[in-house]
Each structure stands twice: as C-alpha cells, then as structure tokens.
Amino acid sequence: PKYVYRFDEGRKDQRDLLGGKGANLAEMTRIGLPVPPGFTISSEACRAYMRDGHLPPGLRVEVTTALRQVEDALGRRLGAPRDPLLVSVRSGAKVSMPGMMDTVLNVGLTDASVQGLADMSGDERFAWDSYRRLVQMFGATVLGIDPRPFGEALDARKAAVGAVSDVDLTAGDLRGLVDEYLQIVRTTCGREFPQDPREQLDLAIDAVFGSWDTERARLYRRRERIPDRLGTAVNVMAMVFGNLGADSGTGVAFTRDPSSGHAGAYGDYLPNAQGEDVVAGIRNTLTLDDLHARDPTSYDELLAAMRRLETHYRDLCDIEFTIERGRLWLLQTRVGKRTAGAAFRVAVQLVDEHLITLDEALARVTGEQLGRLLFPQFDRTAGAPLLTRGLGASPGAAVGEIVLDNAQAIERTQAGVQAILVRRETNADDLAGMISAAGILTARGGKTSHAAVVARGMGRCAVVGAEALDVDEVRGEVRVDDAVLRPGDVIALDGTTGEVFRGEVPVVDSPVLRYVAEGLDAGLRSAADDGVRELVHAVHRLLTHADSVRRLRVRANADTADDARRARARGAEGIGLCRTEHQFLGERRRHVEQVVLAGSEDERQAALAALLPLQRADFTDLLEAMDGLPTTIRLLDPPLHEFLPDLTELSVRVALAEQRGQVDEHDVRLLAAVRRTHEQNPMLGLRGVRLGLTVPGLFAVQVRAIAEATVELRRAGRDPRPEIMVPLVGSAREMQLVRVETERVLAEVAASSGERLRMPIGCMIELPRAALTAQRIATQADFFSFGTNDLTQTTWGFSRDDVEGSFFPAYLDNGVLTVSPFETLDADGVGALVRAGVESGRSARPDLHCGVCGEHGGDPESIHFFHQVGLDDVSCSPFRIPVARLEAGRAAV
Ligand code: ADP
Ligand code: MG
Ligand code: MG
C-alpha cells in the first residue's frame, strides 16, 4: 500500500487518511495558496505502527522519493552544508488535538549545515537561533530529555549578558548556548546529537507517531471521545522562517472573531519569531492591525487568502501563517473551533450572506453548544469587586477556589469544591488540572494560546492574558498590585468579558435560557447588548428551523404540574414519562403501609380508597397543565419496600420498645412486612408490573384516579390526553393481565360518569426479553416506550448505582468503553435491542407508536440513533428539551 502523499496529491475530504492538517494543507496547495512544499505520511502508517510495533518496511523508501521531490522543487538538499533544506515534522490527526502531540521544527540542521543556513540567509544570529531551537525541541520530544535544563541554560545565558528577552541574544551568545545544549544531550542521553540529517528526519517521524500514544494524548482523547485507534498522520514540510528579522514574523488568524462570531480578520502576530512562540504565550502578541501598520502588502495578501479560504470552506477558518522577509506563507488551516455563541451567530451570518443554507447552518451547531448557552451568568447588578481583567477566551461564569497546579485542582474538585486553575501560562502538562477545574485563568497569552484553545474545546470557562497577575509558584501565591491571594481564596471568572472578581458573585439566567423558557421577547429583553440580541435571534432561527424539519417529537419527563409547565414552555409536545412514585411518599406512606398490612380485602380496599382522591388531584393538576397534549403516566415502578420504613431503623425501634415493655402492635406487624418484602437485589425483584399483578387493587386505584381526573377536566371543558404505561413488562401475558384490569376500571368509570373513556395503554420496553418478544407484546400494547436506563442495566448486567464509581474509570481507560453507556446509548448492544423491538413490534402492529424515555432521550448522539431506528418521539428532562429539539432537527437534515 501507499503511505506517503505529496501535498499536491491530496484533498480536504481525506482527513481519515491524511489527518486534518495534512488534508487541509493539500487542499490549500490544490487551490493555489502559498504553502511550502511537503508531504504527508498517512495515519494508515500509524495504525500499522500501533499494530506491529514498527513502521511498515516500505515506508523509508517512500519517504526518500517524496523528500527528493521536495528537494528538487526547491533546488536544495536536506541538511546540506551549503544552502540546506530544513523541514518541520508535524503531527496531525483526523480530529484536531491542539498541542497534544509533537512537532519538531528545523530538522536538518547540524554542525555543518548551520553555517550553510547562516550564509544563505546572511544572518548568523538567525542560524544559531534555529539550531538552538532544534536541539531543544528534538532533545525534548525525540530523545525524551527533560526540557528544564535547556530553559535554565537559556535563562542563565540571558542573565549573564544582561538580555531582557530572547531577541537580545547575539549570534555569539546563541552559538555558546548551542554548545551547552549539545552537551546536555551528550550527558543525559549518552549519545551525540544526530549529525546525519536523514537520521534526524527518521527519528522525528518515529517520535511524532509515538506521540499519539502518550499519557496526555490519551487523556485528551478520552475526554473528547476520540477513538484511540484513529492514529495520527505525520506532515513533513519545508521550513519557512518567521525569525529572520523585523520583516519576518508568525501568527495565527481567524476569518471571524471566534468568540463573538463577528466577521472580519482577527488574530495574533509576533514579529521575528517562530510559530510555536505564539501558542506558547511566551511573548505578548501584536494584533493584525499592527501587522497592517508594519507590512501592508503581507497584510493585504493575508486578508485575500483568508477571504479565499472562507469562500472555499464556507465557514469560519483559522490559519497559521508565517511571513519570511515580506513573503507570506500559509502553514495550516482548518474550520476553526469557536465558542457556542459564535457557532450560532456564524451559522446564521453565513445563511444571511447566502454562503450556506439553513439546513447546513443547522448541521453546524450542536445540542451541546446550545446546552452551554443555557448556563447561568454573573449578575451584573451585584457589584462584586473587580480584581483584574484579561481576555475572555472561553465563555461561562466560574466561581471557585484558587488552585495553582494539577494536584491541587484534582484534590479540591474531588473534595466537592469548585476550583479555578491559575497559571502563568498553560501547556499540555496542565491538561489534568484544566479538566478538573471549573475555570482557568492565565497571566500570559492571547486568545489563541494553549489555555484558550483547550478551554474552548472543552467548554471550560477561561480568562487568559491577565497581565496584572503575578503568579508565583514558588511562594504559592498570586499577586495583583497590592493584593496577595493564596490557594483557597475565592475568585470568579467571566469568560465572556474577561473580568476577574474577588469573592463570590451571584449568577443569573442567561438570555438564551430566558428565550427558551419564556419566549423571544423575554430573551431579547434580558440581552445586555446587540451581540447578545443577535445570539438570541440566531438560536431562535435555528431552533425554529429544527422544529420544522425534525420527524422526532420531543416530550418531557415530568412528574408534577410545575415540571410539566416548565417543559411545555420549553417546547415539549407532551409528557413521555410521568413517574407516579412521589404520589406514594411523604404523608401518604401511612396509606401504603396500611395497604401492605391489611388483614382483609375490605381493609385493603379502604386503604386504597384513601389514596384515590389524593392521586386524582395530582393527575388533575398534571393533565390540566398538559391540556391538549399526550401525557404518558407510568404505573408504580419501584419495589414496595421503598415506601416502607428502613429495616434496621425499624428493628431498633421495635427492640427498644420491647425493652421498655411498650410493644407497638403496628410496628411489630410492619417489621414483619418489611422483613417479608426485603430483597437482596431489589432492582431485579418485586417491582413494576410484578407489583401490579401481586398487590391486588394497586394499579386499579391509579387507573381510576387517572380516569376520574380525565372526566373531571372534560366536564370543565378541557382536553386531557392521558396514556397509561406499564413498567418492566417482560411477557405478553403480563401486559394482557394488566390491560384487562385497566380496561375494566376504565369501563366502570365510563359507565358511572357517562363519558366515553378510551386511552392508549402501552408498556415500557426495558428488559431484553421484552425487546425480543416485542411482536407478541405489541398485540397487547398500544405503544412502546423504551426505558433505556433499565435496558442498559439489564443488557450489560450493570447496576448503575454500583459500577459508575467502581470499575468504569478502568473500563474507560482500557478502552472496553469509550463513554459511559448510561450517558450515550450503546448503539451496538442496547441499540440493537431497541431496533429489534421497534421492528418486531411494528410487524405485529404497523401503527405502533414508539418512543424513548430515560436519560438517553436528551443525549445528542443517542437522539441521532433514535431518529435512525424510526422512533416517533424522545422524552427527556425539561431542561434538555431545547437541546433535544435541535438535535432531532439535525438528525433529520
Ligand atoms: P500544533 O498542531 O501543535 O499547532 P504544528 O505542527 O502546527 O503544531 O506546528 C507548531 C508550530 O510550528 C506552528 O505554529 C506552525 O505554524 C509552525 N510550523 C510548522 N511547520 C512549519 C514550517 N515548515 N515552517 C515554519 N513554521 C512551521
Ligand atoms: Mg498548528
Ligand atoms: Mg425502568
């Protein structure tokens, strides 16, 4: 097979093969943008490397051919003593993993070629600076040397010659530094720094492939749900130099503002620097306007290239560029990461600019992003004291205790305290802390720094470049002017405005939440400025479009009238799951106890009769709130003992009473009942339909309450639409028995009231047996609702309450699971049962209505699956409804 592709051989849709970076470099080359020549070694090679433990044998030969083509195109040889070609060796997976994997620049520099580079450029200083960077980067990433001694040697040299910044070091200083660096390599590795350019290249390629499997890369992938098997591609590309003096430089740019979405060029620029300096946040950057002032020609070219890219990709792009002595080069582009708010605004802006259709716009925003926009924000009127200000790099409102490193961040978070990670700047090693923390604050770096990019990627609130901040790790404190703060002190970050407050700041609803909960006017009224109003409008347009294209109906899981109203305001088209267990708790427990303790049928009936009016009132409220919309009410599901006193407590009470000689007859009988109903494994015990078929009259009283509430509302001119749902059905016979009883009660109420009472009677499918015998069950059920929580538990044999904290972390680590099956539906296993259930159910009853209740109903990925298998609706918590509407729309376009 072929493993190596020149940039002029690929295209942007080959990300699987070439990785995102490689595919986009190829695309830019193809459309004639200035990209230095190079080639991509495919991720296929990485997969072979992971599988076999070494790279494919033919690879070196293919690399030679491609390298020679680059050499011939430029008329230079890799690392030649005269006029040397240098290359970068860059990682690049299908999905971008900013800063997670390795890149080595200036490969090909040796003791011999450094002089050639100096002659070619006419710049000694530049040549030695480049060599210094190579030894350091190669040493750290390829030879695995601790990078600190390099940094220390650099600082020492600067101090010795009184240099303030790297730029102040002379060629001689740098040359001395290179000697020191080579010595560091010699002593720590026991080998010479490789002086053969091709050996450098091969070692760098191996190292970049190897960086796919580092601890931090794996951690990042798990978080971002990127499969480990993808592998990375490696890009080898001729070097261009941003560190060739004042007319050179490097930068990062966006075709639109990635936090507001506003059109216009936006970016960071560093004169006389190489690419990694910008991302590392070592020096504070200039703006593109500054570049305009310094070099109008390059600026104009850059803007033309950016416009070209936006037209071509029809989306916000971010790019890495370098200017070498007034000549612009593009080194990377991709459809840019953006904040949730910008995603909505950009999508709608592009529709208005007639660059994309509304369907495409819908595909470009996600339910997860909408979910983020529903987060609370700081209350502006609270007047909290401003500590300092930085750049709002990733929106959100975070309040928490200062922590200064990963260990503290993890420790506080595990203790249940919100933590704010405060760093001078961040790098890939800070990832664990960034994941734990509620917010991230850095003193250095721009909106494209590591902290900003990673925080945006994971939706974590971040403020960067707060320059007044002095982070002193040694003394463990943070100083701002006169103020000294220490770990444990509380601060609050506004990731939109960049404000940092001291102490707690109260939070309020976001305008987008006001919009989804109370309507467009309320949302617009609560918006602070035009930008936020634009956002509310954008969400409204895309959500309205989603509603118009989706096939899945969206219902809510709501138990009370209040929940129901909340869900309805957010666009719920019915209730998919009303649990009735709360109707048996609190004060009403004593009636349940009496049902259990009843000595005779009459006593039992009396106890049940006492529950009837209470339940009827609950159902009347609920059905009134859902007037005109289907409302699925589930008959009692949990094991009976959940409504009885705790065994231990009651035993103690009875024993103490006996000691005092005051035996309480009721308690003694109750204790016997509790003992009788005690189960080793209640989840698989007497619950759901089993309870209904063993405790006579229990389901009947619920059905009667529903029926009577319906009659009452109808007489008041309302339109109640109850549906009765039976939980935990495993056989058609169970369903048939409940159905007969339910119809009997409905007929009684119909007869006594003179109302016609027909309502759907269906069941949950939450046991594998139910899914497998769905064809027969469907003859007894008017609808199915897949209870995917229990179905996941019973399919995997996982007890949710027990496994998530115990072995799930290990299972996520070793790749048995990529995500908890309780969060995202396990499409292969549990999903197969859902699919089979729908298909066989409908083979018996073609019009069988199928829905899903359970947390998966609000999970984006799962919703797409439910759409595919042809469900009619999903039901989720009221808060998730807008997310589900959006995702159901996205699934349909
Ligand atoms: P990352 O994926 O971490 O951004 P990159 O592979 O993009 O890593 O490279 C790191 C930095 O080096 C970037 O700023 C990039 O623009 C710069 N760079 C990469 N290749 C070259 C090259 N051939 N010439 C000049 N700069 C380069
Ligand atoms: Mg990059
Ligand atoms: Mg269940």
Description:
It is a single chain. This protein is an alpha/beta fold and 893 residues long. Helices cover 47% and strands 18% of the residues. The chain has five domains: 46-238, Acyl-CoA Binding Protein (Up-down Bundle); 249-338, ATP-grasp fold, B domain (D-amino Acid Aminotransferase, Chain A, domain 1, 2-Layer Sandwich); 341-371 and 511-545, no CATH class; 375-508, Phosphohistidine domain (Glucose Oxidase, domain 1, 3-Layer(bba) Sandwich), CATH 3.50.30; 550-639 and 679-892, TIM Barrel (Alpha-Beta Barrel). The strands form seven sheets. The protein has an eight-stranded mixed β-sheet with strand order 14-24-23-16-17-18-19-15. The longest helix is centred in the last third of the chain and has 25 residues, at 601-625. Bound molecules: adenosine-5'-diphosphate and magnesium ion (2 copies). Residues 727, 766, 787, 789-790 line the site of one magnesium ion (MG).
What's the CATH superfamily of the largest domain, by name?
Phosphoenolpyruvate-binding domains
Indicate the structural class. Answer: alpha/beta
Bound molecules: adenosine-5'-diphosphate, magnesium ion
Overall domain count: 5
Could you say what the CATH topology of the largest domain is called? Answer: TIM Barrel
Architecture (CATH level 2) name of the largest domain: Alpha-Beta Barrel
How much helical structure, as a percent, in the residues? Answer: 40-55%
CA gyration radius, whole angstroms: 33 Å
Please tell me what the overall shape is: elongated
E-strand count:
33
Q: With helices defined by DSSP (H or I, 4 residues minimum), what is the helix count?
A: 37
Unreliable stretches? none
Largest sheet: 8 strands, mixed
Hey, roughly how much beta strand do the residues contain? 15-25%
Global mean pLDDT: 92
Distance between the termini: 36 Å
What is the CATH C level class of the largest domain, in words? Alpha Beta
**Strand line-up in the sheet with most strands:** 14-24-23-16-17-18-19-15
